[in-house]
Amino acid sequence: MDAVQISNVTKTFGAVTAVDNLSLIVPEGSVYGFIGPNGSGKTTTMRMIASIFYPDSGDVRVFGQQMLGARSELIGYLPEERGLYRKMAVQPLLEFYGELRSGRKVTAEVESWLKKLDLAKWASQKVQALSKGMSQKVQFIAAVVPAPKLLILDEPFTGLDPVSADTLQSAILDLRRGGVTVILSTHDMQVAENMCDYICMIFRGRKVLDGTLASIQDRYGNDTIRVAAEGGTRFLDGLPDVERVHDLGQVQELRMARGCDPQQVLRTLIERTRVTSFSIVKPSLHDIFVRIAGPEAGEEPIE
Amino acid sequence: MPHNGLHRILLIARRDYLATIRTKAFIIGLVVAPLLFGGGFLGIALMESKPDIKERRIAIVDGTGVAAAAVIQAAQERNAKDLFDKTTHRQVKPRYVFETLPPGANPEVQRLELSERVRHEQLYAFIEIAPTALQATPDAAPPAGNDKDSKAGPVSTYSNAGGFDEASRWLAGSIDEGVRRVRLAQLGVDPSRLSDALAGVKVDRFGLVSRDPKTGEIREASKKNEVAEFAVPFGIMLLLGMIVMVGSSPMLSAVTEDKAQRLVEMLLGMATPFELMMGKVLGALGTSLTSSAFYIVGGTLALESMGLSGMVPFAVFPWFYVYLIADVVFLCSFAAALGAGCSSPQDAQQLAILLLAPVMIPYFMITFVMQQPNGAISTALSLFPPFTPMLMLLRQAMPGGGVPAWQPWVGLVGVLAFTLVMVVAAARIFRVAILLQGKTPKMADLVRWAVRG
């Protein structure tokens, strides 16, 4: 069974269409990533899945059921904006959230998660005493206690240091291994590439990409050259059939036009400078994102 | 308990209730609120305990040649009667002393000279009694003369005092009595019998006589207690208003703060907007009931210890609680809806006045309703649902108020229906507005959401 099925959903706020005729399927047990620029409709879509917003038209089903505004303990939701009762102690707060969602005492689960995320010694501290990273971990626990079947995480890694981000990432992957379906949104393309089984890009309320990373990249083919050369970008101007040069610092990415011969590009480069590395690759998710949502938006075909 | 909407409402209510009553602010407020509300009365009592008793000199310019002596005699009798507290025998009012002057050749110059003496605090005030003052007809023609004389009555007082000048009122009584004495003497009444003739008559007030339905005996009417007649209804209405305000006014800022701190979206992942709002409303109701229990029990024990337990209006307590619950639920729902529409605590402050109206407006009507508790306007106002809790309770708490039995029930139906409508409308506004950020909705938006959701 699909964990989430969205069919022809539209949601407007006044004159603004936040989500426009969106359809997608989130397979059960997968990690499904939403990417897209700010204001593209990711959060609105996730709120509709969590039944916080109702669609104006279309149908949202979670595990085959229309939610119709009801709350379910099967869904854990971590909103983008962090909100915790600052004057409550950590453990009572998490127990309150857990009981609110499940209707039963969740003391054992809360204690287990606090240990797992290295927060046990903060259990009796007030939330206002925690650092931003710790608060974020507390909020994550609030979303996963008691065990949901579907976990919706709106930008879960924003503002986290690498250690905390790794901790959270491994916790999410553990949950996935335990059969939990995870929907997350992120602006970090590396996270999306590394963690997500499926990636959906929403742009201006519409779905413009949907599928596995490989299938998305296949659509663009091997149109990218990754090169490292002495002198950097100085010798890359005016290369034949190269549409765009993306300077990554030590390495540069060149986007080839249709029909471009990479051997000709290599020959021209060797004539100009000493090339230390040259490879033909599929475009990165970052590059695909920029092609769709960057200043060149509209030039690329969308799904 | 099965986990459903009601369970979630109760969980939210319990959290909010415990979070409130465990704060120092609540405990301090429990004590401070009645002091603030009753502070005015306390202030008056304190001021009365430190009266201004400095001697006040009054000059009388007597155009009749006989009235001044009578006025002074009447004033001295009043001095003797009012100057000292009857229980403590402490002087509580200033003593008035008099000097009599004949009319000057130029009245304007004389008035100016006396005014200067008042300005230099040699006099407190001066009185001018025209020769026409002894004429019994009130529209006796003033003497021909300058412009001032053509406008003034037969007796004028001049002073520097502003505001509520108690001295002028006190003097007016003495002048009135003194002039009437002279008139009576001129009509031939024995001056030694004047005090008896002018003595006041004591009027006792009673309720109605009734028949005992069991024994058939006629029950004598009970004497009316003026303190109980005023203090009990006023006090219980004041208490209701105070508890309602203390219970409901924090809701507006609490919801706005939860919204500003992004708490709401987290909670909405676990509870519906209606459950969240009702949980908050019930939490506030719990707080109000706790406060009311504290005041009711404390007040009853205090009155009992003073031997005044007969003044406790036990019969209206059930109504008090019904009105309290309805008022808090309606006002808290309204506050939650308004709070959901606000983007910042500053926005919320501007709307707070809307919440005070159903409590404050009835306060302004207290005197009118107490004077005519069963008049058409009092009845209509107390059946207007937003005012029913306060005004109907006021009427019901008046001893022998005679509110027809059907009126509280009709008022209650109105209040409950109104509360239900307000809760539904507030829930609709709350659901739409609670996640809106950065834009404060206009009144038209709120009305549209309330109607259509």
The pair of chains with the biggest contact is: A-B, 32 and 25 residues
Looking at the structure, the CATH topology of the largest domain in chain A is: Rossmann fold
The level of helicity of chain A is: 25-40%
Question: Distance N terminus to C terminus of chain A?
Answer: 25 Å
Structural class of chain B: mainly alpha
Enumerate the spans of chain A where pLDDT stays under 50 for 5 or more consecutive residues: 299-303
Number of domains of chain B: 2
Mean pLDDT of chain B comes to: 82
Number of helical elements of chain A: 9
Class inferred from helices and paired strands of chain A: alpha/beta
Oligomer: heterodimer
What does this structure look like?
The complex is a heterodimer of chains A (303) and B (453). Chain A is globular, with a radius of gyration of 22 Å. Mean pLDDT of chain A is 89; it is low at 299-303. In chain A, the strands form three sheets. In chain A, strands 6-7-8-3-9-10 form a six-stranded mixed beta sheet, sandwiched between helices. Chain A has 303 residues and is of the alpha/beta class. Chain A folds into two domains: 2-217, Rossmann fold; 222-281, Alpha-Beta Plaits. In chain A, 31% of the residues lie in helices and 29% in strands. Chain A has nine helices and 14 strands. In chain B, the strands form two sheets. Chain B has a four-stranded mixed beta sheet, with helices on both faces. Chain B has a two-stranded antiparallel sheet with strand order 5-6. In chain B, helix 3 (67-82) links the parallel strand 1 and strand 2. Chain B is elongated, with a radius of gyration of 31 Å. Helices cover 62% and strands 6% of the residues of chain B. Chain B is built from 17 helices and six strands. By secondary structure, chain B is mainly α.
